[in-house]
Amino acid sequence: MRELALETRYVRKDGAIVWGRATANWVYGPDGQAIYAVAMVEDVTQRKAAEEALRRSEEALRHSEEQLRQAQKMDAIAPSREASRTTSTTSSPASSATRSS
Asked: In Å, what is the CA distance from 92 to each residue of 70, 82, 84, 88?
């Protein structure tokens, strides 16, 4: 017996889309000739929806990870910029005393 399997999208009369997994098997006689075929269509709509939800979730996770990496890079740069800014603008008490006199 050989099996043929195919997943395909079906559109119902009401316009709703459903996914089906069609399988067909040939039944052979003793002489090796095909006698008849057995076919079945299984509704896999829920599985397809779960796969799509998983794909979207993984995509959102990758996007969040990229944003986190960018934020970490900015945090790594920001303290060095902030430190240089505060050291150049902050004056010691002795220097401010000489300026005010």
From this structure: 36, 18, 15, 11
Determine the Cα–Cα distance for residues 7 and 15; give it in Å rounded to an integer: 19
For the chain, the domain total comes to 1
Which of 2, 5, 17, 14 shows the shortest CA–CA distance to 42?
5
Q: Which domain holds residue 12?
A: 3-43
Whole-model pTM over 0.85 = no
The answer to whether residue 64 is domain-embedded is no
For residue range 13-36, list pLDDT tens digits in order. 999 999 999 999 999 999 999 999
